[in-house]
Design a protein that fits this description.
The complex is a heterodimer. By secondary structure, chain A is mainly β. Chain A has no helices and nine strands. In chain A, the strands form two sheets. In chain A, strands 1, 3, 4, 7, 8 and 9 form a six-stranded mixed beta sheet that branches. A three-stranded antiparallel beta sheet of chain A has the order 2-6-5, with no helix packed on it. In chain A, a hairpin with a 2-residue loop joins strand 7 and strand 8. Chain A is globular and about 40 Å long. Chain B is mainly beta. Chain B is built from no helices and eleven strands. The chains are: A mainly beta, B mainly beta.
Chain lengths: 106, 120
Amino acid sequence: SYELTQPPSVSVSPGQTASITCSGDKLGDKYVCWYQQKPGQSPVLVIYQDKKRPSGIPERFSGSSSGDTATLTISGTQALDEADYYCQAWDSSTAVFGGGTKLTVL
Amino acid sequence: QVQLQESGPGLVKPSETLSLTCTVSGGSIGNYYWNWIRQPPGKGLEWIAYVYYSGSTNYNPSLKSRVTISVDTSKNQLSLKLSSVTAADTAVYYCAREVVTGRKREFDLWGRGTLVTVSS
């Protein structure tokens, strides 16, 4: 079965740029979404179709994808960006999520 | 504003069937795919299945033998049944709306989730 791999944790200082990677076989041939989940809350879509931002998502969130890796980038990271982030793609009519990355802003 | 609300028993006994309903309010269930996704405590997200408003379905192969998902357009509801549950099925269960345009698809709206515990 298809797998998406994310680093378990990423740390960033406030105001700096955070990058969270997601790797999978030929991931660049698929469309990738990113979801943000804060403690006790439901996931929220922050990036879809590799690099598009839904309405209401700050411009500091951006996405890219090529080869076997997709990347979520948060520029000028703020304390309120501290959360778990999940990448997701479809493979053979099955939705697959990465294991999640805990972003710590310190 | 469209909202999703999951409902159902919070406690299910091992070997029994878990049954949940998701009610869609503030909008129509039509023209979307509707999904169930779960998250065991402290763990990641796992996709369970989707149902199109027309009734067509697709299941996660790892759960397919135990899952049934359906939609009731007259009530603006979708339902999930998971049979022969074990402690490993303890999770927060989310319903999520999916926008699909060809190969492009994303879960753009999620319910608040409901915790289901499997225990005797």
